[in-house]
Amino acid sequence: MNKLTAKKKLFLAIDFIAIILLVILDQFTKRLAVLHLMDKDSIVLIPGWLELTFLKNRGAAFGILQDQKVFFVMIAIMILLVIAYVLFQLPLEKKYTYLQIILVMIASGAAGNMIDRIANDYVVDFISFVIINFPIFNVADIYVTVSTFLFIILFLFYYKEKDFDFLSFKQQKKYREFK
Prior knowledge:
This protein is mainly alpha-helical and 179 residues long. It is 59% helix and 11% strand. The termini are close together.
């Protein structure tokens, strides 16, 4: 399993390219927000529901942990390392396709917001659901939130505990010894 087959290398390359493209999309939307929203009034897309409003977010959701750049960058690096490990270990079976997509999305969101924190000391947020007074967010946040929600649903109803045996160090040791 530790050998990287040509098929595994192809899947990892596709994952990496997908992450890059999703981060580019996130950064592009943030750049548009800076150019068209910073120091300007909100743009109302759906009156009373959805607006585009520029915000420099120096914390996390709901404004918690303000000015903790190093903490957030370290968390993002840890998330990216864990996701890389899981993607390398992920079996090339169809049932893991959903997990692979979810991990790519979470990695893209973590990387997109980490880039902002490193480059600007804040994250550019600009999407605002005004009807529920929800925190202003961005495309990277959508990647992470939707993917995490889907992961929980899959973990509860689709995958079984044994489906994650490929992550067990004991399982890998047994596999190597058996081989």
